Amino acid sequence: MSSSQSLKLAAGLALALGVGYLAYEKLIKRKKQRVLDLPVIDFIFYENRSNDPDGYKAECAKVAEAFHKYGVCVVKDSRVKEADNTVFLDMMERYFEGSDGVRDARPEHSYQVGVTPSFIEKPRDHCNRVGSMGPDDKPLSVCPPEKDPKWRFFWRIGPRPTKTGFPDLNAAPVIPPEIPEWTQVMDLWGGKMMDAMFVLSEMAAVGFGLPSDSFTKKLKFGPHLLAPTGSDFTRFASKDTVLAGYHYDLNFLTVHGKSRYPGLNIWTRDNERVGVKVPDGCLFVQAGKQIEYLTGGHVLAGFHEVIVSQATVNVIESKKLKNESLWRVSSTFFGHAQSDQILEPLGHFRTKEALTAFPAKKVGEQVQDELLAINLDQTK
To answer: Please, what is the Cα angle at 21 between 15 and 27, to 5 degrees?
Structure first.
């Protein structure tokens, strides 16, 4: 039987069952889209923008479309080497395996530097949003949300402002003394991810029809953070365990290198839950709340969660046999707008409706509000 005959037969069955052909066709299309295969944004067009301005503008348009439709994009940056990510992951596995979660924690700074141990951070309550989803798209996270079992370490990347009204968001770093190469490894990998974020931010602005520096001038001297999470699979390895509950990121853009364990699910603008295929040697970038603010909702902060899937379980079992680390480390960078900058819709996104939905406020105030909501600011 040919594929076309099979499709006609299936459609006939769907009609007999009262499903309707259009509903069936939508279901088939939906099943094919469960894994989001995004186009790769190649920074070679940025490097050659003077020689090929049309090619550069077309690549920028791809960035804008991906962020608008999906809240994510995939980036190829020749400066980013997988070997650097490997060194970083190796070091962070050693750190999480040996940390007590206390010595390097700075709760007095809302955990914005140093380590955050398990069961501190709790996602915002998005139960109303989740309640409107179909069964195939609902997250595994419970409602109301519970505190995450994941750990995290925050390491500041890039220069600090000489003067700021938000010193806790720009605090001095925490350096684990037992790892002498710590600063070098963190700065190298974090610096490359920060550089990639700045290039992508300029391309996004061009793609949206804004001046090219619209975002980058907001990001200069931001409290950018290399922010690896750690999940302990000696304790939390059961299938369907939620490691990081359903949430969006509060910052501007989040950049991910490849983790050694799968488990990330994202939601598109249409609230469809999908996995993401990221080619080797590429970075995965998610939109955060600050770019949603600056675009007046044209880009939405991407919802996501990290779980123990069956694929995760398979990797855990494989690593047990090889006697390899059972900590899942995310290679994550949070890019922030500078704390004293104003968040408000920019350029043609500055409509009456957008200004009502996104009233002007300082970035630092937005961050502090979010930290309070997710239980990291424990000073109030």
So the answer is: 110
Question: What are the backbone dihedrals phi and psi of residue 192, each rounded to the nearest 5 degrees, phi first?
Answer: -70, -40
Q: Residue 134 phi/psi, 5° resolution?
A: -70, 165
Residue 380: per-residue pLDDT: 63
Query: Looking at residue 15, what is its pLDDT?
Result: 47
Cα 29–chain centre separation: 26
- Any bridge partners for residue 286, and if so which? 72, 254
Q: What is the CA radius of gyration of the chain?
A: 21
Q: What is the rounded end-to-end Cα distance, in angstroms, of the chain?
A: 68
Residue recorded with tokens 């890039």: 158
pTM of this structure: 0.89
3-state secondary structure of 228: coil
The pLDDT value given to residue 275: 82
Question: Which pair of structure tokens corresponds to residue 140?
Answer: 């595994």
Q: Which residues contact 135 (CB under 8 A, 6 or more apart)?
A: none
Tokens 């999470």 belong to 229
Structure tokens at 34: 């469960």
Q: How many CA atoms lie within 13 A of 244 on its CB side?
A: 23
**pLDDT > 70: what percent of the chain?**
91
Exposure on the CB side of residue 356, measured as CA atoms within 13 A: 3
Torsion angle defined by CA atoms of residues 304, 308, 309 and 315, in that order, rounded to the nearest 10 degrees: 120
316: tokens are: 């855990």
Of 113-122, 337-346, 353-362, 371-380, which range is least confident?
371-380
Cα distances from 367 to residues 186, 201, 250, in angstroms, run: 23, 20, 7
Domain regions of the chain by residue span:
35-373
Kindly state the greatest CA–CA separation across the chain: 72
Query: 35-373 belongs to which CATH class?
Result: mainly beta
Chain-centre distance for alpha carbon 301: 9
Specify which residues 42 forms β-bridges with.
76
Using an 8 Å Cβ cutoff, are 113 and 172 in contact? yes
Q: For residue 319, list its beta bridge partners.
A: none
